[in-house]
Amino acid sequence: MAEPPSTTPPPDPETADISDTEAAASAPAQARSDRSPWNWLLIVPIVVPLTTPLFNHDNPRLLGFPTFYWLQLAFIILGVTTTTVVYRMTGRGERR
Amino acid sequence: MSDHIVEIVVFTALFLLVSVMGFVAARWRAPQDLNHLDEWGLGGRNFGGWITWFLVGGDLYTAYTFVAVPALLFGAGAAGFFAVPYTIIVYPMVFLVLVRLWSVSHRHGFVTPADFVRARFGSPTLALLVAITGIAATMPYIALQLVGIEAVLKTMGVTGDSALARHAPIIVAFAILAAYTYQSGLRAPALIAFVKDTLIYIVILVAVIYLPAKLGGWNSIFDAAEAKFAASPAPNDGITLNVNNQLQYITLALGSAMALFLYPHSITGVLASRDRGVIKRNMSALPAYSLLLGLIALLGFMAIAAGVKPLPGAREGTVDSNTVVPLLFDQQFPAWFAGVAFAAVGIGALVPAAIMSIAAANLFTRNIYKEYLRKDATPAQEANVSKITSLVVKVGAVACIVFLDPQFSIDLQLIGGVIILQTLPAVALGLYTRWLHRGALVAGWVAGMGLGMWMLYQIPNAATGRAHFGGSAFPLSKFGFDTTMTIYVGLVAVALNVLVAVIATLILRSMNVAEGEDGTTREDYFADATTAAPTTPAGSTPAAPTTTT
């Protein structure tokens, strides 16, 4: 569980401007957004766990777990990795 | 009762410990004045990463889940495992959505999802629908937490014969819960969640290492389950899915994920966090609970391998499958550790029950009391109404369990998942677009509710011998398709909801029907703790009045 390292994030001009004055937020040029190409990565852990026909099998078993079970548990790691990557690549400006 | 004395002592001791914590919580992160809805109902809107993780985790993964999901695997096998993909896909799905909701709520001081809808669409009516839907979906969920505690109490043999004696321990437990929630608000479950989750993690780690070793390893556990399902006459059980229930599995996981963060109590946990970063980090950290849930689910198969026979249910000839996990612990663990495990489940019920009652109370206060009964309510009055409402909600939940068949609450909760989904267009789509007309959103809600109820009514339950409201898996053959496949009701209903909302929007717009005013601006959706003007902490009544049209 991740409090990210306490290194100061690189100054983000957009954030800095807005935090200076409330008025700056209303200037159209300053408008922030959550848009980022990295966000598309989030589709992967949403779609993959729902493709059950591809892994609805007993074998091969891993440590005694049928495929259907160990693979879905493994998708948790996929989800964590993806959200972490997206947060790291896009979320820096979120840090105060 | 005497053979369970150690379990009862450990259970009671831990229960008393968290009760004390619940009362002390009022002074934790001491607010200047607890008599404000932001303080009582949202813990000061200032929870950091760790607290939020425990709070939201303790909120979403309830005692009932921990008891019912393994019971599903015990009874039906693979189909019950849907809870795992459901809780995997939900976080990437809401990753971007929740920060928008947090930002706009932070700017405007929204406490409930209906507050947001009210301001976004300038429609008190639509907000009222969202609020009532939220309350109706949450109430049976609270009652189900009692079912979780009851499964444990039953296993410990703490049950009398008359209806009242059987329920006395639950009434006492809920009275204590109600008292400290009244006093400490959201701080109580936030603090207790630390104990709850620590206990659950310890119990499950021990269980998944100790029990397989005792039961001959995972291979033989799965083999035992496979043998049981092969011998059973039911067509849809097994340790893998089959052609009949695969679509249901996928749509149930997807639909449940879409519904999860529409529940008012989930949103309460989110809005209580300090900034956007806390939410985003938690989207990566909360899946730790999904791993826990997956392992807990497999306790159902362990119970099969251990030959557990569930205790009898409330009515003659039925079994209470919710008792399989407590029974497994009771049979396999030393008494003192079984006591710890039972306390984990029992306390696990208190945290979500507290948050849910707070969320329902906030909805009533903000979107019914303040909107319709007393428009000039001060923040202190709001907090007071919420506190009292939270008591009423809990009394109602206890009454449901004591006076009605618990099965009734289970059915209602099933319906709850379907109906809360009908707020998706207004709340979730509303965060992204204001294109949908407020009147059309009402029309979509009505259509989705209607179809959802009709579909649920059509579903029989073979196991309990009921003709209606027997589950959420709708046979597609009832739509006239030539197939044995089933699909999750909620997803179909919300699809119709969106469709109707789109069509009605086009119609209403062509007729130039007045649209409400949007009380939010584009920047509101990206505001962070440092960038927003501090409109809320001082606690003047925020936002809503300015949007009245």
TrEMBL record, chain A:
Ranges that cross the membrane: 38-55, 67-87
Keyword flag Transmembrane: yes
Keywords carried by this UniProt record: Membrane, Transmembrane, Transmembrane helix
Stretches with biased composition (Pro residues): 1-13
Region (Disordered): 1-34
InterPro entries: DUF3311
The protein's name: DUF3311 domain-containing protein
Native organism: Catenuloplanes atrovinosus
TrEMBL record, chain B:
Family: Belongs to the sodium:solute symporter (SSF) (TC 2.A.21) family.
Keyword terms, alphabetized: Membrane, Transmembrane, Transmembrane helix, Transport
Superkingdom of origin organism: Bacteria
Mode of membrane association: Multi-pass membrane protein
Intracellular or extracellular location(s): Membrane
One term under GO cellular component: plasma membrane
Name by which UniProt lists this protein: SSS family solute:Na+ symporter
Biological source species: Catenuloplanes atrovinosus
Ranges that cross the membrane: 6-26, 47-67, 73-99, 126-144, 164-182, 194-213, 247-265, 286-308, 335-364, 385-404, 410-432, 439-457, 485-508
GO molecular function: transmembrane transporter activity
Keyword Transport among UniProt keywords: yes
Keyword Transmembrane helix applies: yes
